[in-house]
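Minutes, project check-in

Agenda point 3 was the complex the collaborators sent over. CS summarized: two entities, 1642 residues total, and the question is how they sit relative to each other. Sequences were read into the notes so everyone works from the same version.
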Amino acid sequence: MPAESAAGQAGPTTAPALGAAELDALEAHWRAACYLSAGQLYLRANPLLRTPLEPAHIKPRLLGHWGTCPGLNLVHTHLNRIISAWRRPTVCIWGPGHGAPAVLANSWLEGSYSELYPDVTRDEAGMDRLFAQFSSPGGVPSHVAPQTPGSLHEGGELGYSLAHAYGAALDNPDLLVACVIGDGEAETGPLAASWHGNKFLDPLHDGAVLPILHLNGYKIANPTVSARMPREELDRLLRGYGHDPLYVRGTEPRDVHEAMARAMDTAMERIAGIQNAARDAGLGERPRWPVIVLETPKGWTGPATVDGVPVEGTWRSHQIPLAGVREDPARRRELAEWLLSYRPEELFDERGAPRDQVLACVPHGELRLGASPYANGGLHTRELPLPRLERFAVPVPGPGRSRHSPTEVLAGLLADLVAATAERRDFRVVGPDETASNRLQELYRATGKTWQEAVLPVDEHLDRHGRVMEVLSEHLCQGWLEGYVLTGRHGVFSCYEAFVHIVDSMAAQHIKWLKTAAALPWRRPVPSLNYLLTSHVWRQDHNGFSHQDPGFVDHILNKSPDVVRVYLPPDANTLLSVCDHVLRSRDYVNVVVAGKHPCFDWLSLEEARAHCARGAGIWSWAGSGETGREPDVVLACAGDVPTREILAAAALLREQLPELAVRVVNVVDMTRLLPREEHPHGMPDHEFDALFTRDRPVVFAYHGYPWLVHRVAYRRAVHDQLHVRGYKEMGSTTTPFDMVVRNDMDRFRLVMDVVDRVPGLAPRAAAVRQRMADARSRHHDWIREHGEDLPEIADWEWQPSSPGPSGESGRQRTDAAGGSA
Amino acid sequence: MPAESAAGQAGPTTAPALGAAELDALEAHWRAACYLSAGQLYLRANPLLRTPLEPAHIKPRLLGHWGTCPGLNLVHTHLNRIISAWRRPTVCIWGPGHGAPAVLANSWLEGSYSELYPDVTRDEAGMDRLFAQFSSPGGVPSHVAPQTPGSLHEGGELGYSLAHAYGAALDNPDLLVACVIGDGEAETGPLAASWHGNKFLDPLHDGAVLPILHLNGYKIANPTVSARMPREELDRLLRGYGHDPLYVRGTEPRDVHEAMARAMDTAMERIAGIQNAARDAGLGERPRWPVIVLETPKGWTGPATVDGVPVEGTWRSHQIPLAGVREDPARRRELAEWLLSYRPEELFDERGAPRDQVLACVPHGELRLGASPYANGGLHTRELPLPRLERFAVPVPGPGRSRHSPTEVLAGLLADLVAATAERRDFRVVGPDETASNRLQELYRATGKTWQEAVLPVDEHLDRHGRVMEVLSEHLCQGWLEGYVLTGRHGVFSCYEAFVHIVDSMAAQHIKWLKTAAALPWRRPVPSLNYLLTSHVWRQDHNGFSHQDPGFVDHILNKSPDVVRVYLPPDANTLLSVCDHVLRSRDYVNVVVAGKHPCFDWLSLEEARAHCARGAGIWSWAGSGETGREPDVVLACAGDVPTREILAAAALLREQLPELAVRVVNVVDMTRLLPREEHPHGMPDHEFDALFTRDRPVVFAYHGYPWLVHRVAYRRAVHDQLHVRGYKEMGSTTTPFDMVVRNDMDRFRLVMDVVDRVPGLAPRAAAVRQRMADARSRHHDWIREHGEDLPEIADWEWQPSSPGPSGESGRQRTDAAGGSA
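CS then shared the predicted structure for the full assembly.
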């Protein structure tokens, strides 16, 4: 089949894009990459087939994927060509992550591999290592991975390439981000939504994304939807996504090279046209960016048939087209034939190095895809100009005297940060249409929301250059931010707590990336990925059961402790302090859970800083009877609503059982509860025991699923005395206090827990218990009649234990007991 | 703006679709529904405004969403019309789940509400209750939810409506599934992918899906992408998805009714044409099904402006357009004006019942949307004709003598089940392109893979009517299966274990649905949603780190214990027994984790059944020195690879420390480890203690994250003696045994754990420890040299402790100790 290259609607042009020498060189480069790809799959010795292939030359286990490699090699070869011609910084997102042999081959050819891994030299010995290490014990993974030069995307879990590409292109006006999308990946939801990234790409300040949809026709075992749908439907679909498609299709390599070169040239010209127009003449309507549709056979140039069954061009070439090569001499001959069909002697010199012709298209220095500093984002990272927190901190005349919405307070800091980075353009806030709902709307005094479509008079805050990105897709928010931070910039993802589970798997993959990257000396630390989870489980008054899920923390805490951090600030000032910390951090995934509804202010900024530095501490002003002796009971809390209920319980106990020595402990950093061996923030036992005692009853009100506290604390001495209240899957609820009552985390229940657990309280315990039970029934009846919480609940305020003349006594400083972190 | 209705490419027709009386009736029904929707948001008394509106009539908290209601009311009204005309069973998936007031209003109007909730009568008193209960304590949620008649989809978390619609339509050839997709939801990934559901819908055996994309222009705070993109792009996009669009657009109600009636008529005619053609003349190419694009203002007919600011037609009408109504008399007048603009006196008679004109379009009996038996799927559920397991069970002459791939064995059962339901068509297997990769390919002896696109000679197993559904989208697999089981049919979702996290949030929402539905007496039990998680964490030799994640079990076990079940069968026969059980179950989410690689057969079918019935039990044949006394150590295991390693450790201990009394316990049902109060399967303490002892060291090899075992067992007496090995986030690995070594779950490490924990073993402990450490280093060096596991590992087999003449002695029956479940 001859290749076609249809340059959009204008119809194919006919003048050749390539001179004969250039075509020969591109073809040689591509053959070399294909040879090296196949070699990695099969060989552990004799890399240039200088001697007849023997069983000992073959890997004992054949673990890799051939199907996608020839297409990726074609793309890489032609990216080399246009990078050399346009001298434009470029990264490529390799969606088909199984195509590591291709990307590694190209990196080795261009020399970037040997620069990062000097033992894998660009000669026969290095080729031998390149082959042997691939997907072998102690070697490199078979996916494009952090170990792969030039990569910022692992394709193991499919669906995120195009979102990553957009994230990388944002605020990098000179950058070209090519993105190879496999036609398998194209079936996923996140990828399907990602096409609309072009509605958010600012041609003035952002770089260009060039999607290359690779139709190789098959997944593991099936044809793909996009390869098999009628061509006119695919064309409509891509135009419906707002793209202007260019088609390259063929099976004859030289024809395809010609067509691909023409399509690449056209794409580059169109991109330049769009950007020049925007940058010279100002922004017009949203541009129609090019997309290349590349249709080549799966496993192209591999064995056409095996035992008479078609392999090339079918799903059978997805992984290892020829199996049993070590054992079967006939298969071994087929492999040798296949490998020699690339004519390695023309491609590599006697030392095993690539010949000049092979390298003719390869760009130099940082323009090489494997050497792009954009793909090692930490090289570009600048410290954020974080404003002084004093500007935003709320005054706290005494604990529990005032209320503020923590996220509203934080919005001031974020707005200032946006303003301070207005020129640098290296900080963004993403969220699924919830920035204002999450009470972060003060951001709009500093910026607008990115939007490249038409703007109507009734719209607010839409801006072609806005720093807030809103789209109703958690997948896109996450994918964009991952691409953004992996290229060295900073950001926050603000999300409804329940719906962040939508990106559970993406978060896990990002954590795995960071974990692996941190072990590579050449990878520089990148800004952390920061979640602000709000509209949380305890305040879903009108949204109900479907909006209640505090389990993201559980998911995250299953992952690498070197990477994950979890914070539950109890009020506005602690939220400020926590966010100041996480925005300075590197290489972490920080999860910050905070409410948007007004909640009591407990700590001044200074106290909040000290408390956050420790991560957990005794609030001695909230306890009673702490006179150096061990308390009778510890009331512990983590999260804003649990903290309120624990303090209300402490107040009730002070009133009902004044002789009881009660200690209140608040936890901000959940990982402090872990053993030191399990997390770098984990407390040593002596510190834990100093906070929680070794043997007193501990009643712990926790923001999420209660067993998480047991899971982090099960090795502690006091564990057998630990009683945790938290969220249970109880169904809908419709007033704020009813939510805590239904989950048995209300002040009355907590007091009942205490009287049930502290020995020696009978007979008074029964009376207290009864009063608490009465209060709970009163609440139940009241809300059904009035639709609102009891006034004594709604209007409850913390009272200092012994108010003095200034109204400030009874307030003691946040205690440092147990602190050492 | 006059309404347009463009009937696809043919251009708009002009003859009116509606006579004047019919138009009046439709308009009256729609006004009634809008009145009732607004009433639910605001009123707790005086539902027909028979007296002037007073503060006491207004709800104290206004919790609901108005914006989407008028559009949903329009759709419901016109669905009523075509259902009456075509008498075709219909369900509607209400994507904008916040639109519960609309769906509840319609259900009350048609009478289905009062039939299910007799206290909410179709008169003024019932209207009063309808209003008062909405989003109020003890009332009904503000989302379309299980409580909502006719619903099988909760829109709290957006993105799944269209996948649910396709799932409901499968194998229901007479059913019409209308599906309202909000333009906010349309931005999500799962929804974007769901449009391709038409590539899998068989016009012969499946019903029709009629998507209605509702462009009301705004999300919470932003314009929507699909409402703001140029119309010709949207048209291309929908045609690219394979649909034939019909447009309805307007702001004048009567014009819109006319246009909507015409579009609905056209859609129904086209659907009938497609289905008749397929059923009479045979299948041609994939049909282009209609889609309706309905463009009406957000908050249509609500307050146009409030304080001079536009509200109708903007995002400001998303929730409560008029706030402060209770406090502010002027606002209250505006509300009264708004409500009276619907002319309730024309709509409801003196008793408060809807007048005849209002009900003229409403269908009768089970044709009413709120009374459809399809939306209460348990009414249609039939027992599966499960074949006898003996047909598929593998013979087990003795434990560990043979190996089988558990999933391959299971495939036989699934294939037979497909064959046995070939006529009934109520069982499907879904998966993301992995059915064969997961070694379930025997299914293809009984059926093919659903595929409505072209089929090429090289393709295999594609079939217009196949019972296996493969698409590279876990979201679609999950969404389809949810729709399928909620309409009463059966299915299995086979998935790579790591990537099932992609649907974490969908699974959680389905569990919440089941939990809520189970409490509603009128909802009948539906078949369980069954996960077969395979290609699991311990065998990702070539896929590496990105494919390692056993955390779905943790996620699931956070959810309602009434609904969730988790099974880890250790071999082929136990997998058969577990699957036989889960396929018979109702209203659960069953998670079954099983390997696809050959693993040792431990139990005969009979033993497997007994073991699965208990869920956990002592394998006395694997232990040593059990002579009635308590063991010195308990070796426990859950999962196929952990079971192998524990048994290998037991064999090593028998050899190295023959005097040690070792008990081996295997756990199939993880929820048995929970306390009885926390899960219906939970063991009472005496049973747990009989298995694990109260005070002996327990070394537990677990399939997933080790702390899960602590989380389920922390209340047990033996907990302080419990030492768990499991998966850690360690990065890539490339041989099967290296995986367990790197995670410290290998036999040698387990033996070291035992010698470290059993008191009194010194001085021999040190020597054993050293031998184990030596074996581990030998392994490390060997795989680096040979690329494969040590022969002593690869060829290891279980040896009975004292082989007798038949080779069968030494084998004892699976012990019943501790069993009672």
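Noted in discussion: The first helix of chain A runs from residue 20 to 42.
Follow-up: revisit at the next meeting once the mutant set is ready.
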